């Protein structure tokens, strides 16, 4: 099969012909229809993730059709499926209590296992996979594998966002745009932060109540003024110290910070603990979404309760993924890129 392989960090992915994946006994092989290009992939591409090494195949936001099924698989050949990026084992306490996204035995394609920047991907623990709604475009579905699901879990399970609350969103990548659209659906008011004015203007067209340009404004001060005292919830979607502290400092007393952005490198950073202590803030980490929540989220999207098409900006080829990763070294354009052509 054709695959985009990491050979040297910060260099274009190598388009190679590699061995087709072997089918796991408890899973399936998918012919990949679409795969999102995510900032988490960028962290691996630059050498910032310990499980991404030379020879790795990135790609954890994918959907496709089953072309081979193992003896213990739950799905069959021909099924069109979407996968969460965290594949819980299904047998441990975390999985059995509904928290498969915290499973210590989980497998994450693209990070320690071959991912979906390829024509085919092996998916073990296929009980995590969900049937793709017939009306949902494959390119849009691929973007749900990380961005929308992570934002939904962050807002509803970790932060417990309520109608009328102010939600601050730091970063307007896929997670940030998803959080904006979903928070508005929940009845919250949303202020969006970025350093690119074009992306802030785009957020306003999607329903943001206010924006703050971090390149020219003091973010915590601006948000406290806009919200008349601070946001009740603040979601950090980049994983760097600057936005983490802005998120903590912009909150009202008893506010909730939700850390979504994957920290680069060793993950160490300085955080304003005085703000957390004095305002008695809650600080939540979050990663992914339990597999059991997928059907209800997909049904909500299929019903039209929220329109997520604005977050999909462009479809690219397999060889075009390198340019998308490289662009993440600087300000990026609004919206998400998804690989849909694996022949080039």
Which residues sit in consecutive blocks of at least 5 with pLDDT less than 50?
none
Measured as a percent range, the helix fraction is 25-40%
- Oligomeric state, counting identical vs distinct chains: single chain
How many whole angstroms does the radius of gyration measure? Answer: 19 Å
Number of strands: 15
- The shape, in one word, is globular
Task: Give me the secondary-structure topology.
Blueprint: E1 2-5, E2 14-17, E3 28-36, H1 39-45, E4 62-69, E5 80-82, H2 93-96, E6 120-123, E7 130-131, H3 138-158, E8 166-170, H4 174-185, E9 189-194, H5 197-205, E10 210-213, H6 219-227, E11 231-236, H7 241-249, E12 251-259, H8 273-278, E13 282-285, H9 294-303, E14 312-317, H10 321-327, E15 336-341
Parallel strand pairs: 8-9, 8-11, 9-10, 11-12, 12-13, 14-15
Antiparallel strand pairs: 1-2, 3-4, 3-6, 3-15, 4-5, 5-7
What would you note in describing this structure?
By secondary structure, the protein is α/β, with parallel strands linked by helices. It contains 10 helices and 15 strands. The strands form 3 sheets. Strands 3, 4, 5, 6, 7, 14 and 15 form a 7-stranded mixed β-sheet that branches. Strands 10-9-8-11-12-13 form a 6-stranded parallel β-sheet, sandwiched between helices. A two-stranded antiparallel sheet has the order 1-2. Strand 11, helix 7 and strand 12 (251-259) form a beta-alpha-beta unit. Helix 3 crosses helix 4.
Task: Offer a few descriptive terms.
single chain; 344 residues
In summary, what is this structure?
This protein has 344 residues and is of the alpha/beta class. The protein has helices at 39-45, 93-96, 138-158, 174-185, 197-205, 219-227, 241-249, 273-278, 294-303, 321-327, and strands at residues 2-5, 14-17, 28-36, 62-69, 80-82, 120-123, 130-131, 166-170, 189-194, 210-213, 231-236, 251-259, 282-285, 312-317, 336-341. Helix 3 (138-158) packs across helix 4.
